[in-house]
Design a protein that fits this description.
The chain has helices at residues 9-40, 42-79, 85-118, 122-135, 138-154, 159-181, 191-216, 232-264, 268-284, 286-304, 311-335, 337-342, 348-363, 365-380, 384-408, 413-416, 419-437. By secondary structure, the protein is mainly α.
């Protein structure tokens, strides 16, 4: 952590851009996978969205623990207690692998029962289950990946994430092409091929992180050599921070799953359109997520270094940078919407029908840029229980709006997507008030 009196835009971007590149590549993987499945059919396109979000809802329990680990690593890094970081990483990996085993058997045992009661289209149900049967194997490798990511982001060594993302992308795109379409002697597996290629890319990512860490990281500095498997106190400390984040992430993605379930009841074409819009939304929002993650780790580092007075100005700087960068992505997509949508499908009707919903989500991006940065700053202070309360408060309003607009009144699809404005507005208001008036300055972790 530099001994500067304030954080400059260049310093913020130095931390953010490797995260940005990582998210860009990861979303590029999603874009290409979605584009390939769009050539297979509307059912596969819609089912991959639902099954993908279903998987992510489960994965978010694991990701929430890693985010708590990242906050604690960032705090120890700011305090210069580097020797305590290794036990956080290693203890976290062991805990998450155990948790992944439970989630694996839960998914394999109950997904068909759950989804059969929620989906109306039998074609979508069968395709979604076929995807999940293979995709869930990735939960073990994802558990290791997120802990390495927490280590490198928490210690502000984010450059490695770019190389890791490149390896994931190349692996995923290659096997997407080979397995979805059955090229070069490989079987034509369609939606199952997309799931398998995602698992293979996560395996490649784990191998890269392990090799890089052994070659480049000072094991003495970060306390890896003194790590003891029996040190459950470290895992308990991480859990104390992470439990709220795990529930928060689960509820957040669960609410989005609820949105897509509501859309699925409108028909297979609205679901396919929503998958296209979601994929583009996530791609264009990459600056939002990367700078929000940067705000999280810089706030934690700043508090650990005793620079609490710099936190609010830092958060505003990150938010402004997020809006500016995101505006560029937003403008290009706004001017050339057909080109963006055509990545996913060659169906002229699907392209035309997707444009109104795309415009709706593009216009919400400035609000989402600011709200995500402030909300991640709340988590970065270590007050994750407060962040959970703020998230639940915003989600209650968000879900009620979805029920009114999608289920009760059955608004046109583009109006249904205005739920993003509702969530963005309230999560910003709640987070801003807390950062201005809350007691985060006295939080010890």
């Amino acid at each position: 952590m530099p001994e500067k009196k304030s954080y400059t835009y260049s310093h913020i971007w130095k931390i953010a851009y490797p995260i940005f590149l990582t998210l860009f590549v990861q979303n590029l993987i999603q874009v290409i996978g979605t584009a390939f499945l769009g050539r297979v059919g509307e059912v596969e396109l819609g089912a991959s969205a639902l099954a993908g979000i279903y998987y992510i809802v489960i994965f978010m329990l694991i990701f929430g623990f890693s985010t708590g680990s990242q906050i604690l690593i960032g705090r120890r890094n700011g305090e210069k207690n580097y020797h305590k970081i290794g036990e956080i990483l290693m203890g976290g990996i062991l805990f998450l692998l155990s948790m992944a085993l439970v989630l694996f058997f839960f998914t394999r045992s109950f997904s068909e029962v759950i989804l059969s009661k929620l989906l109306t289209s039998e074609n979508v149900l069968n395709a979604a289950l076929e995807y999940l049967d293979w995709r869930i194997y990735g939960i073990f490798f994802a558990s290791v990946n997120v802990m390495f990511r927490a280590f490198y982001v928490g210690t502000t060594q984010t450059k490695v994430l770019s190389f890791n993302a490149l390896i994931m992308a190349l692996t995923n795109i290659l096997f997407d092409y080979l397995l979805i379409f059955g090229k070069f002697g490989f079987p034509e597996m369609k939606i199952a091929g997309a799931a398998i290629s995602s698992v293979l890319s996560e395996i490649a990512s784990v191998l890269f992180f392990i090799i890089y860490t052994f070659c480049k990281i000072d094991f003495e500095k970060y306390g890896f050599r003194k790590f003891a498997l029996a040190n459950l106190a470290v895992v308990k400390n991480v859990l104390n921070i992470s439990l709220s984040l795990m529930l928060q992430n689960f509820l957040s993605l669960g609410s989005w799953f609820f949105f897509f379930l509501a859309i699925e009841h409108m028909g297979e074409q609205p679901l396919a359109i929503s998958n296209i819009v979601r994929s583009l939304y996530m791609l264009i929002s990459i600056p939002v997520f990367s700078l929000a993650a940067t705000a999280n780790t810089l706030v934690s580092n700043a508090i650990g270094a005793g620079k609490k007075e710099l936190v609010i100005p830092l958060v505003w700087k990150v938010a402004k940078l997020s809006v500016i960068i995101c505006a560029v992505f937003m403008l290009v997509s706004f001017i050339f919407p057909e080109w963006a949508i055509a990545i996913y499908t060659s169906d002229a009707t699907l392209i035309r029908e997707s444009i109104p919903s795309l415009y709706v989500v593009l216009l919400v991006l400035p609000l989402i840029s600011i709200s995500n940065v402030f909300f991640n700053a709340v988590s970065g202070t270590g007050n994750t229980r407060t962040a959970l309360i703020l998230e639940i408060s915003a989600l209650v309003i968000y879900i009620f709006y979805i029920w009114v607009s999608v289920i009760h009144f059955r608004f046109p699809l583009e109006y249904c997507w205005t739920c993003e404005y509702v969530y963005g507005l309230f999560i910003f208001l709640f987070s801003y008030i807390y950062m201005k008036r809350g007691n985060w300055r006295n939080k010890k972790i």
